[in-house]
Design a protein that fits this description.
Strand content: 5-15%
Helix content: over 70%
Number of strands: 4
Distance between the termini: 26 Å
Oligomer: single chain
Radius of gyration: 32 Å
Length: about 325
C-alpha cells in the first residue's frame, strides 16, 4: 500500500469532520439570520409545550385527589369473636401476605365503641348501659391498586376467622373508572398536541425554505447531497426546539405557582393539596427538551424532504 493511500482515510475523516462542523455552524447561523421565522417556530412550539405541560399537571393533580379518596375507602375485616390470639395472628399474617394490601392496622372493639359514641354526638346517651362487648375486633386495611379492589375483597373473605368484610365496592369502581378516563384523556391530549406541533413546525420551516429556495437550488446545482442540505435545517430545528423548551419551562413554572394560589382553597376542601412543582420539575424539564428537540428535528426533516421532492430529482445520498 502506497504512502498516499495510507493518508487518504485521515484526509477523508478530517474533511468529514470539517463538513459536519461547518454545517452545524450554518444551522446556528440560520437561526440568527432568519429571526422572524425563528420567533414564529419558537412561539408555535412554546404554545404546544405549555398545553402539554398543563395537561400533564392537571392529570397528576387529579390522580393525587383520586389516590387520596381511594386511601379513605378502607376495608374493615371483622374477626370472629371466638378466635384465639394465635388465630388472629394467623389472619394478620394472611393479610400481610396479600399483595394488593398497602397498610393494616388493628382496631379493637373498644376503639370502635368510642368512635360510635363520637359519631352520635349529643345522642350518645342512648348507648348508656351498653358496653363494647357486642362489637368485634377488626383489621382496617387499605389497598394499593383500586382496579383490583373486588378481587382483593374476595380473597380476604376466604381467610379463616373472618366474621365479615365491610367495603364500598361501588365507590372503588367509580374511582377506578375516573382514573382510567383521566389516564386515557391525558395520553390522548399529549399525542394530539405532539402531532399538531410536528405538523405546524414542518409547515413553518417549509415557509422558511421557500424564502431560501435560491440558496437550496445553488447547493443542489453544485452537487450537494440531500444530507448536506438537510443537516443545517435539522440543527436549526433542534436549536429552536431547545430555546422553546427553556422558555416553556420558565413560563410553566410561573403559571403553576399562580394556579396553586388560586386553587389552594378548593384542594383543601377535598382534604388534599396540589402536587409540589419541585417534585415534577425534572420530569417536565426533560420532557420539554426531548419533545421540542425531536419535534423541531422531525418537523424540519419532513419539511425539507417534501421540498426536495417537489423541486427536482432527489439526490442520492450515496453519490
Amino acid at each position: 500500500m502506497s504512502k498516499k493511500e495510507n493518508h487518504t482515510p485521515k484526509k477523508d475523516s478530517a474533511k468529514s469532520g470539517f463538513s459536519l462542523k461547518y454545517l452545524t455552524k450554518e444551522g446556528f447561523r440560520n437561526v440568527r439570520t432568519h429571526k422572524l421565522m425563528s420567533i414564529a417556530s419558537i412561539t408555535v412550539m412554546l404554545c404546544c409545550l405549555l398545553l402539554m405541560g398543563c395537561a400533564y399537571l392537571i392529570y397528576i393533580n387529579v390522580q393525587a385527589v383520586i389516590d387520596k379518596v381511594g386511601k379513605q375507602n378502607v376495608i374493615m375485616v371483622f374477626i370472629q369473636d371466638d378466635a384465639t390470639d394465635s388465630e388472629e395472628q394467623k389472619l394478620l399474617s394472611d393479610l400481610k401476605n396479600t399483595s394488593n394490601i398497602n397498610d393494616i392496622s388493628f382496631v379493637s372493639k373498644e376503639q370502635s365503641y368510642q368512635q360510635i359514641l363520637y359519631d352520635m354526638g349529643n345522642q350518645k346517651e342512648v348507648m348508656s348501659g351498653i358496653n363494647s362487648d357486642f362489637l368485634p375486633d377488626a383489621y382496617k386495611v387499605t389497598i394499593k391498586d383500586m382496579s383490583l379492589f373486588s378481587s382483593t375483597v374476595a380473597k380476604i373473605k376466604t381467610y379463616d376467622n373472618v366474621l365479615s368484610v365491610r367495603e364500598n365496592s361501588e365507590l372503588a369502581d367509580k374511582l377506578n373508572k375516573i382514573q382510567n378516563q383521566v389516564s386515557l384523556l391525558g395520553v390522548a391530549v399529549t399525542l394530539i398536541l405532539l402531532i399538531v406541533s410536528v405538523f405546524i413546525i414542518s409547515n413553518t420551516v417549509r415557509i422558511t425554505m421557500y424564502s431560501r429556495s435560491l440558496e437550496i437550488s445553488i447547493m443542489k446545482a453544485v452537487g450537494a447531497t440531500n444530507s448536506f442540505i438537510r443537516w443545517p435545517f435539522i440543527i436549526e430545528g433542534v436549536v429552536l426546539g431547545f430555546i422553546a423548551a427553556v422558555i416553556g419551562f420558565g413560563v410553566m413554572f410561573g403559571l403553576y405557582y399562580g394556579a396553586e394560589k388560586i386553587f389552594a382553597d378548593m384542594f383543601s376542601i377535598l382534604g388534599t393539596a396540589t402536587v409540589d412543582f419541585k417534585k415534577t420539575m425534572i420530569v417536565i424539564a426533560i420532557a420539554f427538551v426531548v419533545l421540542s428537540v425531536i419535534t423541531g428535528a422531525v418537523g424540519s426533516s419532513i419539511s425539507l424532504s417534501r421540498y426536495l421532492k417537489e423541486h427536482g430529482k432527489v439526490v442520492d445520498d450515496a453519490n
